[in-house]
């Protein structure tokens, strides 16, 4: 049923239309200024970090794979992860630096390979003898057990693995450098 019309006494005059008020743009300016300040903050922070980084030119000649690996090994030992009972993190670092050295020095893709994939490649390498292959396998197997099987090696094995990694890296790099120097020596004599 339709609503009844009001009585004549209840009716009021029609008032004029109200003017349209302009928008208050202060909030738009506030958002724009806030976004600008946030952007300036992140750009300034990125610039500050870039300026604080040492230049590659200032750091001297690039490190050899041996120097890089030994530096990382020293940093890992000085991190005191073993004393903090974080053997798993220690062996993740040891395995990573050892595999990076194998990849950089010997050209064997070791970083992404499993131990089972790496064993035949180590055995086939002309730069490694039987003892070095055996030592590398022992070290990588111990690291895998500590990383994935939650095996906590005794302190003697941890010390042995650090010493073995250091001597292995030095002996492989030294032997490879010696062989490469001998190969280049006849070429230099022939040119003279």
What brief labels describe this structure?
about 190 residues, mainly alpha, about 65% helix
TL;DR of this structure?
With 192 residues, the chain is mainly α.
SSE run: HHHHHH
Helix content: 55-70%
Average predicted confidence as pLDDT: 81
Structural class: mainly alpha
Total of helices: 6
Oligomer class:
single chain
Largest sheet descriptor: none
Strand content: under 5%
Stretches where pLDDT falls below 50 for ≥5 residues? none
Model description:
By secondary structure, the chain is mostly helical. It has a domain at 65-191. The chain has six helices and no strands. It has helices spanning 26-52, 65-78, 87-106, 115-124, 130-148, 155-191. α3 runs antiparallel to α5 (130-148) and α5 crosses α6. It is elongated.
Topology:
Elements: H1 26-52, H2 65-78, H3 87-106, H4 115-124, H5 130-148, H6 155-191
């Amino acid at each position: 049923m339709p609503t009844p019309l009001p009585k004549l006494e209840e009716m009021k005059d029609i008032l004029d239309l109200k003017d349209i008020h302009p928008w208050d743009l202060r909030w738009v300016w506030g958002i724009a200024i806030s976004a600008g300040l946030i952007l300036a903050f992140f750009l300034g922070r990125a610039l500050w970090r870039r300026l604080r980084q040492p230049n590659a030119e200032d750091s001297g000649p690039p490190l050899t794979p041996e120097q890089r690996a030994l530096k990382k090994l020293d940093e890992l030992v000085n991190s005191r992860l073993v004393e903090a009972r974080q053997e798993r993190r220690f062996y993740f670092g040891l395995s990573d630096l050892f595999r990076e050295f194998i990849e950089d020095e010997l050209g064997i893709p070791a970083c992404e390979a499993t131990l089972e994939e790496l064993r035949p490649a180590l055995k086939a390498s002309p730069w490694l003898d039987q003892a070095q292959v055996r030592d590398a396998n022992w070290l990588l197997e111990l690291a895998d057990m500590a990383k994935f099987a939650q095996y906590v090696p005794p302190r003697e094995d941890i010390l042995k693995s650090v010493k073995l990694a250091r001597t292995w890296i030095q002996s492989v790099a030294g032997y490879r450098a010696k062989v490469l120097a001998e190969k280049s020596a006849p070429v230099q004599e022939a040119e003279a």
